[in-house]
Amino acid sequence: MPDPVPNDRPAAAASRPKHVLVVDDEKNIRLTLRQVLEEEGLRVDTASDGDDALGKVRAASGPDFDLVLLDLRMPGTGGMEVLRQLRETHPELPVVVFTAHSNAENATEAMKLGATDFAAKPFSPQQVRALVRDLDAAPAATAPAADDERGSERTDDAPSHHTHCTLVALSGGGAPPEALLSLAAASAHSYAHGEVVALALTPDVTDDAVATHARELGVPVRTRRATDGRFRETIRASAEEESPDHVLLPWSGAPAEARALDAFAQQLADEMGTEVTLARPGRRASTQRIAARVSRAPHTLVAVRRALEIARSAGVARLTLLSAQTAPPEGDEERLRRDGRALIRQVARKAGLTEGQYHAHQTVATDERALVRVAEDFDTLCVSAVHGDALADALFGEGEGSDRIRGTIALVRGPEHREPTVLESLLNRLSGT
C-alpha cells in the first residue's frame, strides 16, 4: 500500500502462492493457519519441526512449494537453521518467518539471511492473508551475500516489500497529535516494512505539524485529510481504503463520549477484521513504567503486544504484566492471587517473554477505585476487556477516579464475531477450553 497504489486489492490475486508449507511446533497454530489459508483457496501442507519441513521441501518434485511460513522458535532444528538451508538449496523460495514481538533481533537476523518478510506473534488472520496476497510485491528471496554490508544494500529499482499500515486519527481538540503519532510509530515499528497513515480530522492538524513530528519517528508517515465533519464515516472510509493492520483512535475523557467511541471501535474492529486501540496519551514525561493488564478476556495477548511495542520504542527493557482483579468482601482473595500469578506466567510464555523481560504485578481490590489507584502507578497501561470488566470500566467508562490517571491508557479492541482466529485459538488453549 505504498503511496499512489490503491489498496482496493482483489480478494484473490493472480500471482499469489498456490502451495504453502506451514512450519510450527504448535499444533493449534498449524491447524488454524491451514484453515485461514485454505479459505483463501490455497493448498496447504504442514510440518511440526525443522527436520520435517526440510524433508518435505527436498522430497517435492520440482518447485512444488510457492511459500513457506516458518516459526523461528522450535525444538530440535530451529527455524533459523531451516532458513539457512532453504536459502542454500532453494534460493528463490519465498520464506516468511514468525517470531515473538520481544525478539526483534531474531527477525533482523532472519531478514539478513534472506527471509522474504516477517510477522510478529501473536498475529491475526488478516495479517496472514495480507502476506500471502501481497507476496508478489516482495522481492524474490536470494541467498545472503558473503559480505554483510553488500548483502544489506538495495538498488533503486529493487521492488519493495508489502507495507504494513497503522492508521491514526488526529484531531486538534483530542489527544496531542505528537503523542498519538508516537504510539502509532511504535505499532508500525513491529513490522519489517511499516508506515503510519495520519488521518487529520480537523483543519488545525496541519501537514507541517505532522511532518515535524514525523521526522523523529523513524517510520514513513503519510497524511490524509477529512473531507467533511463526519468523523466516524471518514475513519471508516479511510480504513476501508488503507486496509490497516491497526487503527489508533484518540479517546475522549467525557464518560458518554468514551462509551460511544468504545462501541464504535468495537464495531470498526468487527467490520474491518482488524485491531483498534483507543488511546488517551498521558501527561507524564517519563515512559519507564510500562504495563499490560492480563486477564482471560479476548485480546489479552494483543494488549501485551501493544505494550511490548511501546516499551521497545521507548527503550524500556522490562515490561510489567499486571493482573488486577476485584473480589467481594467474602471472596477467596488468596485463590484469586494464585490464579493471577498463574495467568501472568502463562501469558508471558505465550508472548515469548523470558523471566528477565517482565515483572509480575498481582493485586486484588475490593472496588473499582482501588484498581484505578493501581493504574496510577504506570506511565503506560494497555488493557483489553469486554464490557463489565471492572478496571476497563473504571478507566474508560463512568468509573470514578480515571481523571486522576496521568499515564497513557490504551484499550485494545479486536474483531469478536467471526471464525476463530490464531489469537483466539491460543487463548482457548491458555484457558483450557
Description:
The chain has 433 residues and is of the alpha/beta class. Among the domains are: 19-151, Response regulator (Rossmann fold); 286-433, Rossmann fold (3-Layer(aba) Sandwich). Helix content is 38%, strand content 20%. It is built from 15 helices and 15 strands. The chain has helices spanning 27-39, 50-59, 79-89, 104-113, 125-133, 148-151, 177-188, 207-214, 231-242, 255-272, 300-314, 333-350, 368-375, 390-396, 422-431, and strands at 19-23, 43-47, 67-71, 95-100, 117-121, 164-170, 194-200, 221-225, 246-250, 275-280, 290-293, 319-326, 358-365, 380-383, 408-413. The protein has a 10-stranded mixed β-sheet with strand order 8-7-6-9-10-15-14-11-12-13, sandwiched between helices. Strands 2-1-3-4-5 form a 5-stranded parallel β-sheet, with helices on both faces. Helix 8 (207-214) links the parallel strand 7 and strand 8 (221-225). The chain is globular, with a radius of gyration of 22 Å. 46% of the residues are buried. Residues 1-16, 136-162 and 417-433 have low confidence and may be disordered.
How much helix is in the residues? 25-40%
Mean pLDDT: 75
Helix and strand content put the structural class at: alpha/beta
Distance between the termini: 38 Å
Strand content: 15-25%
Please write the string of helix (H) and strand (E) elements.
EHEHEHEHEHHEHEHEHEHEEHEHEHEHEH
CATH topology of one domain: Rossmann fold
CATH homologous superfamily annotation of one domain: HUPs
Describe the largest sheet: 10 strands, mixed
Number of strands: 15
How would you write the strand order of the largest sheet? 8-7-6-9-10-15-14-11-12-13
- Tell the overall outline: globular
**What is the radius of gyration?**
22 Å
Number of helices: 15
CATH class of one domain: Alpha Beta
